[in-house]
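Why should sequence recovery work at all? Because a backbone constrains its sequence more than one might expect. Tight turns favour small or flexible residues, buried strands favour hydrophobic ones, and helices have their own preferences. The token representation captures these environments compactly. In the example below, the structure is given first.
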């Protein structure tokens, strides 16, 4: 099968397609024939060596997949022909940019029936990050005032819709070219992060969802008892202490595979409450171009590879 590997850290040029052995599913695993695989900023950080999660190369790249079960190992909870999606093995290597991935059947979920594979692949890592922060850690509920940084991005555009689906009042930070987009996702208020000081514009938020390392500024807009969710990879370890000392709650998120949450997300997608936005697709051979775009830091929604 074909898969994208890298033999050294570096720019997009280190990504190369290689022929490799098709994996065999072990007990409890499914072999997924991958139709699409999404690109996340973490793929770019790992590729460059900025976030050496996988140790030294060589290794296979990528996590988000959507596809069809080709083989099921003994005890796996899917059958041949089932459509599934997920982010198996994260943060260990999964080689998701590939024609086949063998995955523990509890690390993938049934794909939303209303979506094609390209849109389903856009969901797992980004939407689970938003879900694990907003729903599982913060328990966001109807009427909560939720401030979302980086609202037009991969994680942010799911965070807006997940908060909204739970009845929250959503305040979204985005550049003006993205304002109609985030309003269309359900944001009640929109702030231009380039020209407006959000610490002046927002008061008494119940929840802040921070992906921009602005933890201390975000703390200042939370009501007493409010929750600061941080998904920043290299967050200041003392931030949690300052947040708790100020009488607010801190939730640091490092996303994990979670089939039950992916099924809950699929239900909201099929009910029309969440829709992934795919800005552009690239064939597997052009994974490097997809990485360049994601590395720009200004993609709206997601970039997906077709396999
Ligand atoms: N902890 C975890 O488990 C976890 C999981 C997933 C992601 N993350 C991290 O979370 C971050 C966001 O991930 P993502 O996938 O959402 O990234 P992304 O899709 O690349 O984010 C792009 C968006 O960020 C916006 N943006 C760029 N600079 C900004 C700024 N200074 N202030 C506000 N918005 C800004 C852009 O908006 P404009 O175009 O309007 O400028 C763009 O829409 C990344 O650092 C990623 O590594 C962490």
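From this structural description, the recovered sequence reads:
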């Amino acid at each position: 099968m074909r898969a994208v590997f890298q033999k050294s850290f570096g720019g997009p040029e280190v990504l190369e397609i290689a022929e490799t052995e098709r994996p065999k599913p072990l007990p409890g695993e499914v072999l997924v024939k991958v139709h699409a695989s999404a690109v996340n900023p973490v793929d770019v950080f790992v590729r460059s060596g900025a976030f050496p999660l996988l140790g030294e190369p060589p290794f296979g790249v990528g996590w988000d997949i959507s596809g069809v079960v080709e083989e099921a190992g003994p005890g796996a909870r899917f059958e041949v022909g089932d459509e599934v999606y997920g982010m198996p093995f994260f943060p260990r290597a999964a080689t998701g940019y590939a024609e086949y991935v063998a995955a523990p059947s509890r690390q993938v979920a049934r794909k939303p029936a209303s979506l094609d594979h390209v849109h389903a692949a856009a969901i797992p890592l980004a939407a689970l990050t938003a879900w694990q922060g907003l729903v599982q850690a913060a328990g966001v509920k109807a009427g909560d005032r939720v401030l979302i940084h980086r609202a037009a991005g991969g994680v942010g555009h799911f965070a807006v819709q997940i908060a909204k689906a739970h009845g929250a009042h959503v305040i979204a930070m985005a550049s003006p070219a993205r304002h109609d987009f985030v309003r269309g996702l359900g944001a009640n208020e929109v702030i231009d992060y380039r020209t407006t000081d959000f610490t002046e514009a927002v008061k008494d938020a119940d929840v802040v969802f921070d992906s921009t390392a602005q933890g201390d500024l975000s703390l200042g807009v939370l009501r007493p008892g409010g929750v600061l969710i941080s998904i920043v990879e290299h967050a200041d370890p003392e931030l949690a202490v300052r947040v708790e000392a100020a009488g607010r709650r801190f939730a640091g998120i490092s996303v994990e595979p979670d089939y039950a949450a992916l099924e809950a997300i699929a239900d909201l997608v099929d009910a029309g409450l969440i829709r992934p936005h795919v800005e552009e697709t690239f064939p597997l051979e052009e994974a490097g171009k997809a990485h360049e775009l994601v590395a720009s830091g200004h993609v709206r929604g997601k970039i997906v590879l077709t396999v």
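A few observations help interpret the result. The mean pLDDT is 97.
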